[in-house]
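User: For documentation purposes, I need each entry recorded in a consistent format: the amino acid sequence on its own, followed directly by the corresponding structure tokens. There are two entries in this batch. Please keep commentary to a minimum and don't merge the entries.

Assistant: Recorded as requested. Entry 1:
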Amino acid sequence: MPLEFELAPGRMIGGDHPCFIIAEIGQNHQGDINIAKQMIKIAKEAGADCAKFQKSELQYKFNKAALARPYTSKNSFGRTYGEHKRFLEFSHAQYKELQEYAKEVGIYFTASGMDEVRKRDKTKSDVKMTRGMMTVVWK
């Protein structure tokens, strides 16, 4: 009997069920919620089942020295690595807004916890573990 299970509310995978396609958006939105929304819509139009982001609590992921070091990359959004990373992080309210937008578009929304605090945050979501990273799937 082929393995099958419910990956997200109402969405089975394995067995004879179709492949579950995840569009990895990560932080490619460049800290702009409108770009993030465009990427969610494009992911849906391209046939993805889920739009996936990354969420970090920087003070738990990096030490103070790492956050304070100069960051002079041509792609930097701040003078220090911490400023750069903070620019790319959405607030909890913004993630809720993206979640609602994904629901309107008709695509699952997920965010991988990139630190221990985010991995333990199971608030208002269905949680699936993948290789030690928490993936929260909402729809």
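Entry 2:
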Amino acid sequence: MGRGVVFSDSQIDEISIKMQTTSTSGLEDTTEVIKKLEEKLFTIDRADLDTVVSYVGYQESQAGPPIFAPNLAQIRVILNFQDKRKTKDANVITNRIRELVGKPENVTDMTIDVVKAGPGAGLDINYIISGDSYAEIEKAAGYMMERMNGFEMEVGRGKDKEMINPITELKTDLEEGKKEIHFVVDEAKASMAGINLSQVSMIMRASIAGLNVKSIKRDSENVDIMVRVKEDDIQTVDDILELKIPNMMGQRIPLKTIVTVEEEQGYSILKHRDGKKAIGIEGSIDKEKTNVAAVNEELSGIIEEARKKFPAVEIRTAGEFEMMQEAFRDLIEAFAVAMALIFIILATLFGSLVQPLVIMAAIPFGFIGVMLTLFFHWETASFMTFMGFVGLSGVVVNNSLIMVNFMNQGIKEYADKNKAVLDGAKSRLRPIILTTVTTSVGLFPLAYGWFGGNDPMLMPMALVFSWGLLFASLVTLFIIPSLYVIMNNARTLLKKIIGKDSDEDFYLFKNKKNISYKKTDKSRAVEIKEEK
């Protein structure tokens, strides 16, 4: 059983392939790459594949509007409905596509992953590294990438256990652009030569982009007058370095004597997060082997190491794992509020603080039933399975509530407490079994997809609800009466300790007609005459 996801991957019917070719590629070059990939995709069994849609020069973004560029492309692989596919698991098809595609020529970056809908539609692996210095952020990102590339974890169970690195297509979200040339001015040499930085900046701007020195009006339009070096004279970096700058003494100093040239990789986009410079680490996982929660939990050690090694940067989890944590946190809070309200209502109805606990004792057994169901069905614990558990809790509480109420009524009638409890439990045996069996069997078609009841989103919820109800109800038939007897014995013992008769006032009740009941023999309590 997996450790948890927002929504099960069984409901996936689309796979996305996003790629980026070399920065010098045009639309025609990118189109050629796409055509070759499409040929490979069409070798997939047509029982699994429905449609392939390709976009050139366009790519959807996870965090914002689409991106348009001639070297970007995206392929949508739309699968047939799960009940019609030969390969039911979309993750198996995704791995097959990865094998078919391999590493295409002229492709610098490529991501292949399933497309999810709803709250679980996030990246499998996603960490945001932010800070004030790009240099420090890049160091932290490089360290994490190195550790994650060498990461291994245990997957499978029994004889199928193995150590693998489940992370695929790990990358940063820095998008490389063209090379950048930096002219670094040696301020000491410039000062000795009698040249200031503004002069250097002005000469370089004039040589490359030109200077706007004046605007004139011609035919009611403003026309800018630009001063720049002839384009034929500036073809290379060396041509710029040969430019001469006049100093305060009227001397013409070659630019190359006061600057040095540095070439660095440029980026097309520099991202920020909460006002700070940021880099994201992204990746997919092999969901055929494991799940998002398990991998991110195993990676937590690497993240903590990176935080200690680079205290100047902030590292936080994002993507599907963050969504999953928020979803489960909200669900747990809602469940806690619901349990508190149930307790308050029961305490008010029964006039006791102990009996609500006896009634609610059935809930943990419902949870045990859910966990056993997930284990034996090799199903991942998802948001919908826990929604099923929340619904299941209400049903098992209802069964326990009615049983305890019957026992309370028996206590009024029988002097023998054990007989009262036994009769109360026996009277509810048939109704609980009948309602449990009919409810569970009624949910089986949805849980297993029988008779056209194949809804991937609701199947996990129906599965845990049906089997969890069967388990919890059967256990309740024995546990609740036992706890009720223990409660009564504890109350009797407590009354003896504090010096009161254990039976005092316990069997004395008054109805609306002021009719009282009292113990007359060891087995029965009889009605006495109405008090005048």
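Summary note for entry 2:
The radius of gyration is 37 Å.
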